[in-house]
Request: fold
Amino acid sequence: MAIMTSYLKTTILLAGLTAIFMAVGFLLGGKTGLIIAFVMALGMNLFSYWNSGDMVLSMYGAREVDAYSAPEFHGIVARLAERAGLPMPRVYIIQNDQPNAFATGRDPEHAAVAATTGLLQRLTPEEIAGGWRRAA
Reply:
């Protein structure tokens, strides 16, 4: 239910932004401007849908890690994914002292989890996992 609501909200937002873009296109170029604006909006929306996860990871300079280069963090993510019944996401580390973490991707098969070095240095494995050991 929550996932469906999220998709619905995203669809409404993108449709609204596309309508605004098309209205500006119409004001600037009439019917031709409207069509050009629609094609551009459609292209931008498709590009964003397919590439947004990689774009944000690239923006932060994230580097992908595996079980050998970051065994503890990779293991935490693997255990959480397994417990949730999700496929293993790609795992990234961002060189930054500010503690932060996020997940991105268009669906579970194209998911990625990233954490900063600041977060990994300051928190315990249990804190990083959000208390998964207590719930086990």
